[in-house]
Amino acid sequence: MFDKLFQAQQKAQEIKSRLDNISVSAEAEGGKVRVVATANKEIKEIVISDELFAEGDKEQIEDLLLVALNKALAQAENVSQTEMQAATQDMFGGLGGLGNLFNK
């Protein structure tokens, strides 16, 4: 049983490492603001177009940043959930007779 728990912990670490290497990106206002994040929800890059800076509307830039950041984080969450669901299915499928442990 402890072996299965150790394997689950190792699998969780593998997933975290894999999520660190998956990038998601999102844009706002037709690409004037672009955000790149990892699937672990770490922001890696923010690109703001020169055109948007030239307009000089601080409030617009802030609003567009919020939109792009939230989109990127939502994508990261979707990827993370998908990876975790796949891992959970693998783990529970691999528990063998452990599911009957409490039915005896």
Using brief descriptors, characterize the structure shown.
104 residues; alpha+beta; Ybab, Chain: A; three-stranded antiparallel β-sheet; 3 helices; 3 strands
What does the model show?
It is a single chain. Helix content is 59%, strand content 17%. The protein has 104 residues and is α+β, with helices and mostly antiparallel strands. It has a domain at 22-89: Nucleoid-associated protein YbaB-like domain (Ybab, Chain: A, 2-Layer Sandwich). The chain has a 3-stranded antiparallel β-sheet with strand order 1-2-3. Strand 2 (33-38) and strand 3 form a beta hairpin. Pfam families: YbaB_DNA_bd. One of its GO terms (molecular function) is DNA binding. One of its GO terms (cellular component) is bacterial nucleoid.
Question: What is the gist of this entry?
Answer:
It holds the Pfam family YbaB_DNA_bd. The chain is an alpha+beta fold and 104 residues long. It is built from three helices and three strands, in the order αβββαα.
